[in-house]
Amino acid sequence: MATYYIGANDEHGQNPPTAGKRTPVLPYINRSFYENEFNRPTKNCFIEACLRCGFDVYDVKPEIIDISISERVRRINRQNLTLLVTFGYNAFGNGTSFNSASGILTFYSPLNRFPDSSRALSEEIYVQLIEGTNQVGRGVSTLTNVGVLQSVNCVSTLVEPGFMTNFDEAKLMLDPDFHTEVGEECCKGVCEYLGANYVARELQNYPLLRQGSRNNYVEVLQFMLRNLGYNIAVDGIFGNATRNAVVSFQMNNGLVADGIVGNNTWRTLLVLPPRPTLRQGNRGNYVRYLQSKLTTKLYPTGAIDGIFGNATREAVVQLQLENALVPDGIVGARTWEVISQIGGGRPQP
Questions:
Q1: Rounded distance, CA 317 to CA 292, Å?
Q2: How far apart are CA 28 and CA 107, in angstroms?
Q3: What is the count of structural domains for the chain?
């Protein structure tokens, strides 16, 4: 496969949050979701997918703070990228209340150096998003005076797969499965545009890795561990630091701590089913996923920290009560079936 260099960019910031870029206050949890709480993890899912497919990837904005458009354009234009995908979330109205505007849009700039190719990339990604999500399609559109579309020296698109001023789409913003879905569909669109092979996010495609391994899946591993807080380089070389991070992850998730990345470790990193029964006192990646899913369905868990404490148990009980499940606070198969769905959750009062 030819070597392609893919840029990935997320709009706005979380810490501190970019002013105004948030949902109206959501009921039940009494907080807003910040736009970057969708943009950043979805960008990371896209990067994981691109690395898995064998692309070289440039993360334009690894920082959690907002970075000026001019600085991001400078970074992009130094890289000689094949293309750039930017992730955002749309809004309509004054931003203080929810309304009916909804759906997916992708954008390109007719003033980009490669307007026809930028349009083609936007169209390919749009097709994949429409086929792979339940969102309403609003089409491919143009924008001017957007630096990451207009002022960059590569093919460029902006993806906005929902409206944070729409109640149901606002709830999706923290859903890890929606992040994955959008990231994967965007990668499929990139592959279609480039004529490259898309490698699915299926356990059978993830190889056994151990110290000494060198390949793009080591980069995937390192990137995922880094996003979980492990301080390692993403260089595709499975050395001592990577092994130590793997052992720590395995210990924190109740896995055999041998430093070898096999099916059980990959499954836990990817949070794939079958998902384990969870109860108060459990810790790890599946608990963090559970907390994110509960929060996006508007059941407050407190911090999304991977620790199944009192607040998480109470959120599980409330979900069970409202979905005709046994309210025992234990997350088994029937509770997972409700929680793992994309969308749903508590209605707008």
A1: 16
A2: 34
A3: 3
Same domain, 226 and 298: no
Indicate if 131 and 86 belong to the same structural domain.
yes
Do 153 and 257 lie in a common domain?
Answer: no
Q: Which of 65, 268, 35, 63 is nearest to 158 (CA)?
A: 35
Give the chain's mean pLDDT: 98
**CATH code: domain of residue 175:** 3.40.630.40
SS3 sequence of the chain: CCCCEEEEEECCCECCECCCCECCCECCCCECCECHHHHHHHHHHHHHHHHHCCCEEEECCCCCCCCCHHHHHHHHHCCCCCEEEEECCECCCCCCCCCCCCCEEEEECCCCCCHHHHHHHHHHHHHHHHHHCCCCEEEEEECCCCHHHHCCCCEEEEEECCECCCHHHHHHHHCHHHHHHHHHHHHHHHHHHHCCCCCCCCHHHCCCECCCCECHHHHHHHHHHHHCCCCCCCCCECCHHHHHHHHHHHHHCCCCCCCCECHHHHHHHHCCCCCCCECCCCECHHHHHHHHHHHHCCCCCCCCCCECCHHHHHHHHHHHHHCCCCCCCCECHHHHHHHCCCCCCCCCC
Give pTM, 2 decimals: 0.97
- Residue 234: domain span: 207-261
Asked whether residue 213 is domain-assigned, the answer is yes
pLDDT in tens, 28-49: 999 999 999 999 999 999 999 9
Asked if residue 119 is part of any domain, the answer here is yes
Task: Give CA angle at 328 (327, 331), nearest 5°.
Answer: 100
User: What's the pLDDT tens digit per position in 301-345?
Assistant: 999 999 999 999 999 999 999 999 999 999 999 999 999 999 999
Find residue 308's DSSP bridge partners. Answer: none
